Amino acid sequence: MDSRAEKALLFFISIAVALLNRWFVTYLFGTTPVVLFMKWYLNDIIGACGFCAYCDFMSLIFKKATINSFMLIGIIVVAGLFWEYITPMFRVDTTSDIYDLFAYVLGAAIYILIANVLNIVRNHKKQ
After folding, report:
1. Burial of 127 by CB count in 10 Å (0-12 exposed, 13-18 middle, 19+ buried)?
2. Which residue positions in the chain have pLDDT lower than 70?
3. Where are the domains of the chain?
4. pLDDT for the residue numbered 26
5. Cβ atoms within 10 A of the Cβ of 101, count?
């Protein structure tokens, strides 16, 4: 599988998992602490993975610039700050939560780890 296909696959997997979490898990299993974590923070982690995959995929498609791990973390931090502190100024149905920022960074770190493992596997197969 080439790099573009891997990035696209990671993006679509993150969307599918987020939708499953939103539609099924949080509505079927009540309000236990695990379910509340999944409702409040798991989508943020998955969303950050998907956002990183999207950014990485777009950089491969348009070949304007390559995005490294530090750039992805930076993009996530800036986007997270915007979503958590600027957006609530304009939308009354949102609130700021510092733990969401940690979830975004954790999601980016998970994406980077997965992408690096896939890269190592791909390079090992070439040898």
Report:
1. exposed
2. 1-4, 25-31, 127
3. 3-126
4. 60
5. 20
